[in-house]
Amino acid sequence: MTDATRPAEPTTALRAEPKGGRGRIFGWAMWDWGAQPFNTVITTFVFAVYLTSESFGSTNTTSTALAIATAISGLLVALLAPVLGQNSDRSGKGVRNLRVQTWVLAALSAALFFIKPEPGFLVLGLVLLGAGSIISEIASVNYNASIEQVASPRNIGRVSGFGWGMGYLGGILVLLLIYFLFIQPDVGLFGVTDADGLDIRVSMLVCGLWILLFTLPAFAVLKDTPKEAAPRVGIVDSYKLVWDSLRRLWGQSRHTVYFLGASALFRDGLAGVFAFGAILAAGTFGMSAGEVVIFGAVANIVAGIATMLFGLLDDVLGPKRVILISLVALTVLGLGIFIFHDGGKTVFWTMGLAMTAFVGPAQASARSFLARVIPEGQGGEIFGLYATTGRVVSFLSPAAFAFFIWVGSVVTDDDNTQYWGILGIALVLVAGLAVLIPVKTPQEQVGPQAG
C-alpha cells in the first residue's frame, strides 16, 4: 500500500511531538519510581503481610478481611473516579490534582506507623490501606493522562515500559533499604527492633518520605494547561457525562470500548497477582517476613527489567500481542503454583518469580494501547474511563480469591486453604484474555469502522 492510498491515522494527543526529550521522560517516570513504595512495600511485600500475620488473627480471617477491604476500596474508586476525572479534564489542572493526591498518599503511608500488631488495630489498618489504595488509583489517572506530554507515536511503548520499569526498580531499592536498615538486623538503625512491630511501622514512615521526595522531579517537568472556567458539575451530572463519553467513544472507536472492558478484567487479575502474592508466600509457603522481602526485591528486579524490554517489543509487535503473551504465561504459571504447592518454597521461588516478569509488561502495554487511540485533549477523560471501568469490576479478584479459599475449606480437610485463592486470580485473568482476543488493535481500527 502506498502512502497515497494508506488510510490516514486518527489524530490523537500523541501526534504532537513532545519537547524536552529524554530529560522530560526521565522526570515523568520518577513519579512511578517515587510512588511505587505504596504498591511494593505497603500493599504487597511488607505491610499487607504484616496485617495478615497471626498478631492480627488467624490466617483465613485476616486474608479474607484484606480481600473484602480491597474489594470495597475498588468499588469506591469506581464511584469517585468519574467525578474527579471529569474535574481534572474540564479544569486542565490534572498535574495540580496529581500533586495534591501524591501528598495525601504520602501522609496515609506514614500514618500506618500507628498500626500496632494487635487484633484491635486490624480494622484501622484496613481503613488506612483502603484509603491509600483509592488515592493511589485516582492519582494514577492523572499520571497516565500526562504521558502525552512526554511520548510520541514512535516511542509510546518504550516510554510506558520505562515508567513501569522505573517503578519496579524504585520499589526494590526502598524495599532493600528498609529490610537491611530496620527489618533484618536484630537492632536496626536508630535502635529499631521488631518489638511491637516497630521495624515494620518505622518502614512505613520511610515510605511516606520516599513518596514525598522522589515524585518532585515529575512535578518539575509536567505542566498544567488550565482551561476557561467551567461550571462545577455534581455527582449525578458527572455520571451522565461519563455515559455520554462512552456513547461517543462507541460511535468513534467501538473496539476501544471493547478494550476498556477487557482491560478492566485482566488488570484486576494483574492487581490480584501482586496483592495476594506475598500473602501466599507467607501463609501458604511458610516464608518468613525477611524471606518475603528478599523475594520481593528479586521479583522487582525481574519485573523492572522485563517491563523495559517488553516496552521495546511493544513498539515492534504492538501492545495487544505483548498483553496476550503475558496473560497466557501468567495463567499457566498460576495454575502451576496451585498444582505443585506441596513442593514448598522452591515452587514459589521459581514459578512465582516467573510470574512477576509478565505483570508489568501487560500493565505498561495496556497503558500504551489506550494512549495510542486517545483523541487530542481527552487524556484525562479517557484514562478516567479506564480507571472507572477497571474499578467497576475490581471486586472480582479479591472476591474470587476469598471465595476459592472458602471452596477449598469445604472440599478439603486442610486447615489452611489459602492456596486455593490462586484459582480465583487465574479465573479473572482467563476472563480478561477471552474478552481481549477479538479486540482490534489501533492499527486495525484505522479505516472503515468495524462493528
Topology of helices and strands:
Elements: H1 21-45, H2 47-51, H3 59-91, H4 94-111, H5 122-145, H6 156-183, H7 198-214, H8 216-221, H9 235-252, H10 254-283, H11 289-317, H12 319-339, H13 345-371, H14 379-392, H15 396-411, H16 421-436, H17 442-445
Helix pairs in contact: 1-5, 1-6, 1-7, 1-10, 3-5, 3-14, 3-15, 4-5, 4-7, 5-14, 6-7, 6-11, 6-13, 9-10, 10-13, 10-14, 10-15, 10-16, 11-12, 11-13, 12-13, 12-16, 15-16
Please give a structural write-up.
By secondary structure, the chain is mainly alpha-helical. It has a single domain (18-223, 239-445), classed as MFS general substrate transporter like domains (Growth Hormone, Chain: A, Up-down Bundle), CATH 1.20.1250. The chain contains 17 helices and no strands. Helix 1 packs antiparallel against helix 5, helix 6 packs antiparallel against helix 11 and helix 15 packs across helix 16 (421-436). The longest helix is centred in the first third of the chain and has 33 residues, at 59-91. The two termini are 24 Å apart.
Descriptive labels:
mainly alpha; Growth Hormone, Chain: A; disordered N terminus; globular; 451 residues
Report the count of strand segments. 0
Oligomerization status of the protein chains? single chain
**How much is the radius of gyration in Å?**
21 Å
Q: Helical proportion? A: over 70%
CATH class: Mainly Alpha
Shape: globular
* Class derived from helix and strand content: mainly alpha
Total number of distinct structural domains: 1
Concise structural overview:
With about 450 residues, this protein is mainly α.
